[in-house]
């Protein structure tokens, strides 16, 4: 019997497959994600772009 995957493990498996394990993982977020930043670092997030597009004009 296998236990259900945690959300963190699901993301890790989706992002890190053998054929793409050398590609950067980039995330853009419009929300406050400070509470999950440690988890994102743990799954090897390589770039975070938290800047909303409207401030780039």
Structure description:
The protein has one domain. Helix content is 26%, strand content 11%. The protein contains two helices and two strands; from the N terminus they run αβαβ. Helix 2 links the parallel strand 1 and strand 2 (47-49). 0% of the residues are buried. The mean pLDDT is 77.
Summarize the structure.
26% of the residues lie in helices and 11% in strands. The protein is α+β, with helices and mostly antiparallel strands and 57 residues long. It has one domain (7-56).
Oligomer: single chain
Number of strands: 2
Runs in which pLDDT lies below 50 for 5 or more consecutive residues are none
For the biggest β-sheet, the strand order reads: 1-2
Helix content: 25-40%
Please trace the helix and strand order, writing H or E for each element: HEHE
Would you tell me the structural class of the helices and strands?
alpha+beta
What is the end-to-end distance?
53 Å
Principal-axis shape: globular
* % residues in beta strands: 5-15%
Mean pLDDT over the full residue set? 77
Defining key terms:
about 55 residues; globular; alpha+beta; single chain
Q: What's the SSE blueprint?
A:
Elements: H1 7-15, E1 26-28, H2 37-42, E2 47-49
Parallel strand pairs: 1-2
């Amino acid at each position: 019997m296998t236990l259900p995957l945690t959300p963190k493990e699901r993301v890790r498996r989706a992002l890190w497959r053998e054929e793409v394990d050398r590609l950067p993982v980039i995330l853009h977020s419009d929300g406050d994600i400070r509470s999950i930043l440690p988890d994102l670092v743990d799954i090897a997030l390589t770039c975070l772009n938290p800047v909303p597009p409207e401030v780039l004009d």
